[in-house]
Amino acid sequence: MSTIASLHIGELGYISEESLDFIPLKLLEMGCLPGAEVQLIQIAPLKDPLYICVNGSHLAIRKETASRIKILKANL
Amino acid sequence: MPKNDIKVALIGNPNTGKTSLFNQLTGLNQKVGNYPGVTVDKKQGICKLSATQNAIITDLPGTYSINPTSLDESIVLKSLLKKDIKESPDVILVVADVENLKRNLLLFSQIKDLEIPTVLAINMVDQMHRKGISIDVSLLQKELNTEVVLISARKNQGINDVKEAIIRCHVAAKASPLCGINSKIDPDYFQNLKEISSNFSLYELWLMVTQNNYPDTITKEEKEKLLAFKQDVSKLKRYQHKETIYRYQEINKILKKTYIVDKSKATDVRSKLDKIFTHKIFGYFFFFFILLVIFQSIFDWATLPMDLIDSTFADLSDFVRGRFQPGLLTDLLVEGIIPGIGGVLIFIPQIAILFLFIAILEETGYMSRVVFLMDKIMRRFGMNGKSIIPLISGTACAIPAIMATRTISSWKERLITILVTPFTTCSARLPVYAILISLIIPNKKILGFLNLQGLVLLLLYALGFGMAILGAYILHKTLKIKSKSFFVVEMPNYKIPSLKNVFFEVLEKTKAFVFGAGKIILALSIVLWFLASNGPKSFANAEKNVVENIENRNASQEELNQKIASEKLKNSYIGIMGKTIEPVIKPLGYDWKIGIALITSFAAREIFVGTLATIYSVEADDENTATIKEKMRSEINPATGEKRFNFAVGMSLLIFYAFAMQCMATLAIVKRETKTWKWPLIQFFGMGCLAYISSLIVYQILS
């Protein structure tokens, strides 16, 4: 299954229900909820952190966190 | 404070324009103080709500929820859980951004569950049309059961509505919870929790359990019962997750009825700008270009006002000397207090310019992009993208820079940033560098356009920054602190900075510097003056000895006065101290006179030049800097017959000033931020040893 870290720039996905336990509370509070649409906007020059847009929030998170959040890719 | 003033706490997500609203409501009636019991600054201001009613507004740090992950955020929780009458707010004003209303309402729903009267101010409504957003305010007001006001703090719209809503809210004191968390998650669990105490709302009790933060008013018995709920940590975590999701469900239900976005109307400047600013190559290029502009401006623009301040204080000293009766008090004024105050104020231009740039970068939203670009690099050295802000601020002054580390959530990363920030070249090192470079480095051009002296100065800046990075790496490898590194940064929309906000920010930071560092530098100047103008018996005989010395028979009165002054200094308390440490500093190439300057500048580096000026018995005013320099240049080392400030000694001193921890005010701030003397002491001795050893090596190789 894919994670946020496996998205390509510009690609969309939906956060899957089963990753609920792996999303830090802080990210949940910022709108990273199961079912939410997430888009990868930009990757920092050294391939980390990732700049994502989720639920209308524009956030930078580290790759390590992103690779724990499972998603369903949108256009598959 | 008068009893009928309404206490209002201003709360909101970062980047919602909270500060703009605070500035609009309070204007120049602001002050920065300390939270009692918590050693963190709080911003307060007075706002006139109506002809008869004032409000005291407290600006709390921006936060996404009241489950804190950084020091800044924990302040919000602490001030909300406070139950004593003097501190707890009567009304909470939640500021939300119209574009991110959903996320902002999460914080609002938590606040509402604390059952304190709450006003919701939805900000930036001037952009609603452009973004295709429409809101049914009266329905939203009903659904949320609170006062809702649409405002645009930057355009000064709706500010009066906010004031009226605060009064209405205070009178009506509507305070029912929004999301009853009890029923949805685990009714039995929350029922048991609620039965512990009737003095607190269910949500307050829940926060005490999850955040381990207990108000003073809680009884011992209640606390023990609450602690029992903490046993099952994974259950707590699961329930917190559930709680958050439940809150979002409630919010979604409400927004569905009241908030409509037509995405086709949205224009997207952000993504275009982001493509440039976070670009792999252009991103860094642009960042270094900005840094270059900042440093050029600091040195270019600040020179004129600095010279002006310098000469004003020299004139003031002369004026006082000429006007008042000669005596102890006049001496204290002329040689201690006036130069002391001048020594603080002279840094205002450089510090203000740097803060001006930092405030603009923050306001525009660009700083978050820098954090994004730098995180991976900084992490290799045990820091975090957010550490770049303290490291840049440190080039003005380490004190506000260390305070800026509060947003870093990992304690280890924050501590490392605090410990290495004093290596960056602050403005207090500049006068020392300037005079030493002009003594030992020839003023010539290399490659036809680079000024050699300027190049050396640039290298010293690079040395400071490099040492900060190296120091961080060593600490990263040696400090055994387990601290979870969690990193999330919001990338706010780009904004044109508001002049009012930038002005207040610069004013506040500069004030904090002047009153923070200023007190210590002033106090020390007075102590220094005392130690230099008093001494044991031999001090009193100095004048007689010089006059009676046969060698001085043909000296002019001016020469004689200078000889008396330096004889007095040698026998003063400070002179004796210099003599005492001479054996220790001799291997670095310094004599007792430089030793005196070293001792005094341990309080603050910029005292170095002033002390040498006193020691070489010339006046310290601006017109005579050439004379200080000439005096230093013509000073002879009696042991070798060579110049005292030769290349080896000059380099040794430069390295010493680059590394040594010579700033009492910074040590005091580090103590305050780390809450123990351990870290400032480690910093003091660690940096001191490094400075000593490096200077020793440099001097021994070069001499």
Automatic annotation (TrEMBL), chain A:
Pfam families: FeoA
Keyword Iron: yes
Domain of life: Bacteria
Keywords: Iron
Limits of the Ferrous iron transporter FeoA-like domain: 2-73
PANTHER family: FE(2+) TRANSPORT PROTEIN A (PTHR42954:SF2)
Listed name of the protein: Ferrous iron transport protein A
Taxonomic path: Bacteria, Pseudomonadati, Bacteroidota, Flavobacteriia, Flavobacteriales
UniProtKB/TrEMBL annotation, chain B:
Boundaries of every FeoB-type G domain copy: 5-172
Key words, A-Z: Cell membrane, Coiled coil, GTP-binding, Ion transport, Iron, Iron transport, Membrane, Nucleotide-binding, Transmembrane, Transmembrane helix, Transport
Subcellular location: Cell inner membrane; Cell membrane
Membrane-spanning parts: 281-299, 337-361, 381-403, 415-442, 454-475, 512-532, 647-669, 681-702
SUPFAM superfamilies in the record: P-loop containing nucleoside triphosphate hydrolases
InterPro entries: Fe2_transport_prot-B, Fe2_transport_prot_B_C, FeoB_GTPase, G_FEOB_dom, Gate_dom, GTP-bd, P-loop_NTPase
Coiled-coil regions, chain positions: 540-567
Membrane topology summary: Multi-pass membrane protein
Similarity comment: Belongs to the TRAFAC class TrmE-Era-EngA-EngB-Septin-like GTPase superfamily. FeoB GTPase (TC 9.A.8) family.
Name the UniProt record assigns to this protein: Ferrous iron transport protein B
Species whose genome carries this gene: Polaribacter batillariae
Taxonomic classification: Bacteria, Pseudomonadati, Bacteroidota, Flavobacteriia, Flavobacteriales
